[in-house]
Amino acid sequence: MFVFSQQPSVANHFIAELRDVTVQKDPMRFRRNLERLGELMAYEISKSLNYQTNKIKTPLGVSATQLLANPPVLATILRASLPFHQGFLNYFDKAENAFVGAYRGYHAHDEGFDIAMDYISSPDLSGKTVILMDPMLATGRSLEKVYHALLRYGIPAQTHIAAVIASPEGIQFVQERLPQCRLWLGAIDEHLDDHFYIVPGLGDAGDLAFGSKL
Q: For a tag site, which of 1, 113, 118, 155 has the least CB within 10 Å?
């Protein structure tokens, strides 16, 4: 498990702005900070991928360079993940893409909630590297449901899960239910509240990025 906040870096500035109630009032800034973190996380994940030596012809000769053997598939849970996804796509610009519409359904106090899923689009995932992303890893239930839904498109060789903010409960759930997936996180927060929101968290990432929904 990789966690940005466990070491000093500029990533912490972007996370701080995502949390800040004053900076949050600018949706464009909020989206851009999600995109920046996607770029930084793409770079970190790239270090764990497979490479091959390619010969690149220059004006004065030939340079042997380690290039990605195959780009990953970027799988995104709509809608909050779109700016985060764009950050990954800025770096993995030849990546194939998958999109899943998944969200919390019925919720009552102390009764939990259902995960509704009404849209999915994916390329063939067989033997490929998948990066599954969602800015907020709260309970982990939506990630688990989306992961298993994607398997109908093929079994990946490896899967990485990327999130900006995670709860300890969500991390434990994912590690127990999806032990084959590696976690890449911006920060780990304190706990989930009674409504299953991350504390201190940052609020509703989808609403902050794109406006309130009915």
A: 118
How far is 50 from 69, CA to CA, in rounded Å?
6
Range 189-198 contact pairs with CB under 8 angstroms and sequence separation of 24 or more: 189/165, 191/167, 192/138, 192/139, 192/167, 194/109, 194/110, 195/107, 195/109, 196/104, 196/107, 196/112, 196/113, 196/138, 196/139, 197/138, 198/136, 198/138, 198/165, 198/166, 198/167, 198/170
**What is the distance between the alpha carbons of residues 99 and 4, in angstroms, rounded to a whole number?**
25
Which is nearest to 84 in space by CA: 69, 97, 94, 71?
97
At the top level of CATH, the class of 2-49+70-210 is alpha beta
**Distance, CA of 124 to chain centre:** 20
Q: How far apart are the first and last CA of the chain?
A: 36
- Token pair 């903010």 in the structure block, residue: 165
> Cα 149 to chain center, whole Å?
17
pLDDT by residue (tens digit) across 126-175? Answer: 999 999 999 999 999 999 999 999 999 999 999 999 999 999 999 999 99
**Rounded distance between C-alpha atoms, residue 36 and residue 15, angstroms:** 10
Q: In whole angstroms, give the CA distance from residue 69 to residue 199.
A: 40
**What residues does each domain of the chain span?**
2-49+70-210
| Overall pTM surpassing 0.85 (yes/no) | yes
Check if the beta carbon of residue 167 is closer than 8 Å to that of residue 195: no
- Rounded CA-CA distance 132/147 in Å is 8
